[in-house]
Design goal:
This protein has 338 residues and is mainly alpha-helical. The protein has a domain at 7-46. The protein is built from two helices and four strands. The protein has helices at residues 57-250, 270-283, and strands spanning 3-4, 26-29, 32-35, 38-41. The protein has a four-stranded antiparallel β-sheet, with helices on one face. Residues 1-26, 28-33, 39-48, 269-309 and 322-330 have low confidence and may be disordered.
């Protein structure tokens, strides 16, 4: 049996009461047509037993339509089968072409990989050979260098053995010279040390003497200052005595003694001393007076009282002579007598 799908779509068919259209499956058998496993008898089919009846125009038309549809279905089926065969042939050819293309690409990739591996292997081989050559060259250079070193060492040993005695003599001479220089330097250092110590001792002694001399000069200055102050006191006392004498000669009473406050460092008040001296000289009879004159009478104006004029020196001033600036005699500040 031949299965035709949708065979009645393109065939014009009459309208039957029980026509289901082209929604079913037609099967062509000898003398009958089957639609959806239902056998449809054709009255015009040959070899059909039955009572012959006359064929109407409608049946003839239906029969012609059926035959025409069967022919069209068969033709369509053959065309579709041929088209399907062509498609399958094209698909198979395309598949074979793709397979051939893939195989060719695989062979190309394999060949390229193989060629790349061969190149890498050749490069590694070249590198290995280069490294081996370098190692051989390095070993040869090391061997040559070791031979040169051994040759130089042997030559140096021979030279050292040859000049060893001369070098030893030079070393001995150099050592002797070094020791002589060291001894000379030690001697010079000792002399310089001794000289510096001697100079330091002399400077210390000289400085001590200068300090002692300065101390003695200070004592002398203190004695000179004390002598000068004592001389000034005596000069003031003489001035007061002379003033009292002039007053007595002029018939005037002596002035009252003046007291000063805060004068704890002065030795003796000149006014009191002058007053005592004046009273004693006034009470005692002078050289020109007689015993008949009453006591307390003022002497004549033309007879002045005796005044010591020699500079007063302390008992210890002869041991410490005065400096040149202080050897001048003390001048009295006496007023001219009227």
């Amino acid at each position: 049996p031949t299965t035709v799908a949708h065979a009645a779509d393109s065939v014009p068919r009459p309208l039957f009461v029980e026509d289901h259209g082209a929604s079913g499956t037609w099967e062509m058998k000898a003398g009958a047509a089957c639609f959806n496993d239902t056998e449809v008898s054709s009255p015009c089919a040959p070899g059909v037993s039955g009572k012959a009846r006359p064929q109407s125009a409608r049946e003839a038309q239906w029969q012609a339509t059926l035959e025409r549809s069967q022919l069209l279905a068969k033709t369509e089926l053959e065309q579709r089968a041929q088209k399907w065969c062509k498609k399958e042939t094209a698909v198979e050819a395309h598949r074979a072409y793709k397979m051939r293309q893939v195989d060719e690409l695989r062979h190309q990739r394999q060949a390229a990989n193989l060629q790349r591996e061969r190149k890498a292997l050749a490069a590694r081989e070249v590198e290995r050979q280069r490294v081996e050559e370098r190692m051989r060259a390095f070993e040869q250079s090391q061997e040559r260098w070791s031979k040169k070193v051994e040759r130089a060492k042997s030559l140096n040993r021979e030279t050292a053995d040859t000049v060893g005695s001369a070098a030893a003599e030079r070393n001995m001479a150099r050592e002797a010279k070094r020791q002589a220089l060291q001894s000379e330097q030690a001697r010079r250092h000792a002399e310089m040390t001794e000289r510096s110590n001697r100079l330091q001792q002399e400077a210390t002694t000289r400085r001590q003497q200068e300090l002692e001399a300065r101390a003695v000069s200070a004592e002398r200055k203190a004695v000179w200052e004390a002598s000068r102050q004592q001389a000034e006191r005596l000069e003031r006392i003489r001035e007061v005595e002379l003033e009292d004498a002039r007053r007595l000669n002029a018939g005037q009473p002596p002035p009252a003694p003046q007291r000063r406050r805060g004068g704890s460092s002065r030795p003796t008040t000149p006014c009191r001393t002058a007053g005592r001296v004046t009273r004693s000289s006034r009470d005692a009879p002078s050289q020109g007076e007689t015993q008949d004159q009453p006591q307390g009478q003022v002497p004549a104006p033309d007879v002045p009282l005796p005044v010591p004029r020699e500079p007063v020196r302390l008992p210890y001033s002869r041991f410490f002579p005065a400096p040149p600036s202080e050897e001048k005699p003390v001048q009295s500040k006496r007023r001219p007598q009227s």
